[in-house]
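Researcher: Next entry in the queue.
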Amino acid sequence: MRAIIYCRVSTEKAEQETSLMRQEKELLELAERLGFDIEAVISEKASGYDLDRDGIFEMLSLLKEKKAGAVLIQDETRLGRGNAKVALLHFLLKESAVLYTLTNKGELEISDSDSMVLQIVAIVEEYQRKIHNLKIKRGMLEAVRKGYKPQKNLKNQGNLGGRERKTVPVSEIIRLRENGLTFEEIAATLKGFGYNISRATVHRRFLEHINSENSS
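Model: Structure for this entry, 216 residues:
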């Protein structure tokens, strides 16, 4: 597995430089013990309460692009503090990334209080998605009532393999995916706009886009 090493101190004081170097050294040793390949080593000086950190955004991008599947930190407070920590833990869980710490000498054990908050956040997000999809459904039903014919939006291109390749709005798939919708929810949403495609097709086009971005 490829991993990201993330080191952080809270101030610009010169003595904190030693802490950053120690964190990096110990985390490299942990990565070696766990048999991980290192994708990136990120070190920064910033408050744990602040989400606007260059290092954090670099880490999130690497995880989003699936260039790494694990993050190694000294302890969970290095990731962040307060609401910032919970938000970042939630992102890691959504991206199926695994967090390893020196404190736990392995995978992070999330506290009961943090686990409860994360469950609440997940439930809220799920209901937000449901509300979003219901709004789309109601809008489409109203449009159809007024004479809109979604089947006219279906377009196909010839395919030398004998099957017609469906034209789908890849940009819309990417946007909906970034908003947290599942591939099944994206397929349902696009069907409402006249694109009769399956979850598998949505997933395939999404992967094609990601692979194209990675190869460019």
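Model: Confidence is low (pLDDT under 50) at residues 153-165.
Researcher: Noted, moving on.
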